[in-house]
Amino acid sequence: MSKPPARTRLADAAFALFDERGYEQTTIDDIAERAGLGRTTFFRHYRSKEEVIFPDHDRLLELIRDRLATSSHSTALVAVSDAVRLVLLHYIDEGDLARRRYALTSKVAALRDREIASVARYQRLFREFIADWMGDPTESASLRAELMAASVVAAHNHVLRRWLRGESTDPVAEVDEAMREVLALFPAPASPSEPGAGTTIVAFRTGQNIDALLPSLRRLVEEGAKQSGTRVT
Amino acid sequence: MSKPPARTRLADAAFALFDERGYEQTTIDDIAERAGLGRTTFFRHYRSKEEVIFPDHDRLLELIRDRLATSSHSTALVAVSDAVRLVLLHYIDEGDLARRRYALTSKVAALRDREIASVARYQRLFREFIADWMGDPTESASLRAELMAASVVAAHNHVLRRWLRGESTDPVAEVDEAMREVLALFPAPASPSEPGAGTTIVAFRTGQNIDALLPSLRRLVEEGAKQSGTRVT
DNA sequence: TAAAATACGGTACGCAGTACCGCTCGTGAG
DNA sequence: CTCACGAGCGGTACTGCGTACCGTATTTTA
Quick one: signal sequence residues (chains A, B) (predicted)? Predict the structure, then answer.
C-alpha cells in the first residue's frame, strides 16, 4: 500500500482522464479528485493544465543549451545536429508516454500549438548558436543560420514523428541519416589548416541543365575560395 | 461625428490600451469600455482577445491554399516560393499595424506562441503541397519535402522580421533573393523533355576537402541521373 | 523540546470565454 | 400604417483556469 508521490499520482490521473473523456472535457478538479488530492496541490506541482503533459520541456531546453555551450565540434551544424539527437533520445526514453502525448497533441489544437511553440524555442536556440559560431554579421550569413536551424529542426521532427507513429524501428539511425542530408545541404567551408585540404579537381556528368546546378556550385566554390584563396576557373 | 464600425473601434481601443498598459494588463472589459461598447459585442466580432491582434490569419491561410491549388509552376518549390511572397506582401500592406503587432509579440510570450503556431500552419500547408506534388511516397522524398517547407518558411520569416524591425527598405527584393538561396539548396531535377538539357560536363577547383563536397555532389548526380539516365563517372 | 521547513487543503478572487435572453432599431410586405 | 422579422447590441449568469493568501499537519533540524 505504498503511496507514489503526489506529482506522479497527478500525472497518472490526468492521463487516465484525458484518455477517458478527452483533454478539454477534463477539469483540474477532476484530476485532483481522481488523484485524491486538492486542487491547490495540482498547481503546486504543475503550473498549468498543459504542463502535466509537457513536464520537462524547460529542463530539456537547458540541457541542450549546456550541451551547445560545452560543445567542441568542427562546425556549428555538426554541434547542433549532435545536440538535437539528445532531444530525440529524450523522447525515445519516455517511450509510451511520448506516444500518448503525441496522440493528445494530434487531437487537441491547443496542445499542438504548445508543442510547436516549444520546438520553436529549440530552433531559436540553434539559430543563435549557429549565428554566434559563424561570427559573421552579414545578412547572408544570418539567413544561412536561420535556414540551418530550421532544417535541423525539421529533420528531427520528421524522424521523431515517424517514430511516434510507429513507422520507425531505428529512429537513431534515421536521425543520423537525416542529419547527413542536412549537412549535405550546407557544405562546410574548409578549414585552411587542415592537412590534405588542397586544391581538388572534380568532374562529373549529369543530365541536369547547367543552370539548375549553377547556384549550388557557385555557393560551394565561393565558400571554398573565401577560406583558401583558390581561383575558380 | 461619424461613427466607425464597431469592429474597427474595438481594434483601435485594444491597440491603444495594449500600448498604454501592456497586453496582459488590459482586460476585455477595458477594451469594450474604451470603445463605448459592451463586452458581449467584443466577442461578437473577435473570438478571443488574441484574435483582435491576428484578425485575418485564417483568411490569409485560405488565400495561400487557393493560390497553391491554382498554381502552375515548373516545380513545387517555385510555386511555394511564389505563394509565400503573398504572405510577405500582406504584412507589408498592413504597414504600421504589422509593426505594432510585432512589438507586442516580441514582449508577450503568449502572443509569440500564437504567431508561431500560425506560421506552422503555413509550413504544414507547404509541406503537404510539396509532398503531393512530388508524388513520391518514399521516406527520403518525405524528408525532402519537410526540409523544403521549413526552409521556405524560415527564409520568409527572416526577411519579414528584418522588415518589421526596420532593417530592410526593399523586403520584396530581399525575399526574392532569399528564395533564390533556398532554391539553390534544393536543385530541381531536370525535366527530360526540356530542350538543351543534355549531358553537361562541369569541372571546378576548390580548396575544400573532397569529402566535404561529396554528399552534395552525390545528391546532385543521383537526382540528375534518375531522370535522364546519364552515368556517373 | 522548540522551532522551522515542507507539504497539503480551503477560500476567495480576477479574468477569459460561452450561453442565453431581452432590447432596439431599421426595413420591407401586407 | 403596421406588423413581422432580422441584425446588431447590451446584460446576466455560468464554467473553468490560474493566482493569492491563509491555516494546518507532519517532518526535520537546531
Answer: none
Position B83, amino acid: A
Residue B29 — very low, low, confident or very high, per pLDDT cuts 50/70/90? very high
Cα Rg, chain A, nearest whole Å: 23
* Residues of chain A found within 8 Å of residue B229, distances taken between Cβ atoms: 207
Dist. CA A63–CA A72, nearest whole Å: 16
At A139-195, the pLDDT tens digits run: 999 999 999 999 999 999 999 999 999 999 999 999 999 999 999 999 876 544 444
Whole-model pTM: value is 0.83
CATH number of A54-184: 1.10.357.10
Which nucleotide lies nearest residue B47, CA to C1'? C17
Q: Per-residue pLDDT tens for B200-221?
A: 444 444 545 454 545 454 545 4
Q: What does the longest C-alpha to C-alpha distance in chain A come to? A: 79
Q: Domain residues of chain A, as ranges?
A: 6-52, 54-184
The cell for A183 is: 549537412
Does the beta-carbon distance from B202 to A213 stay under 8 Å?
yes
Distances (CA, A) of A69 to A62, A80, A123: 10, 11, 15
Which residue of B117, B213, B231 is in closest CB contact with A113? Answer: B117
Q: Which CATH superfamily is domain B6-52 in?
A: Homeodomain-like (1.10.10.60)
Using CA atoms, how far residue B194 sits from B22, B53, B190, B228, in Å, is: 58, 48, 8, 11
Amino acid at A45: H
